[in-house]
């Protein structure tokens, strides 16, 4: 199974109840394709950087999904035919997560292999010159 991050932007004309219903529908679609929704992050209504389809603000939703390409293809198809979805983006993140975990483990291994710094030696008093 691969891990994907799916972001979609919904039109501000829908209500939050409709948006919650659509998110539940998306979760059902993913589970129907033998996938699993790991995390749902609803950012709420935010302003857009530029106008998209005459809208200045929209609802942002980020989903972290574990599944195969068929589940993502079905989600993207449904996003295309849904009128109130303005934009969407699907990104495979499992390779990035593996790379980050490898870097993290290397960093921990290096920090544990380093010895704790030795305490500074006491300074020897200098002979006073007369």
Question: How does this model look, in words?
Answer:
By secondary structure, the chain is an alpha+beta fold. It has a single domain (2-95), classed as Ribosomal protein S6/Translation elongation factor EF1B (Alpha-Beta Plaits), CATH 3.30.70.60. It has three helices and four strands, in the order E-H-E-E-H-E-H. The chain has helices at residues 16-32, 69-81, 94-113, and strands at 2-10, 36-52, 55-67, 85-92. Strand 2 (36-52) and strand 3 form a beta hairpin. Helix 1 (16-32) runs antiparallel to helix 2.
What features would you highlight for this structure?
alpha+beta, Alpha-Beta Plaits, 3 helices, elongated
Q: Tell me the name of the CATH homologous superfamily.
A: Ribosomal protein S6/Translation elongation factor EF1B
- Rounded to the nearest angstrom, the distance between the terminal CA atoms is 81 Å
Under the CATH scheme, which class? Alpha Beta
Annotated CATH topology: Alpha-Beta Plaits
Mind telling me which CATH architecture this is? 2-Layer Sandwich
Shape category? elongated
What's the assembly state of these chains? single chain
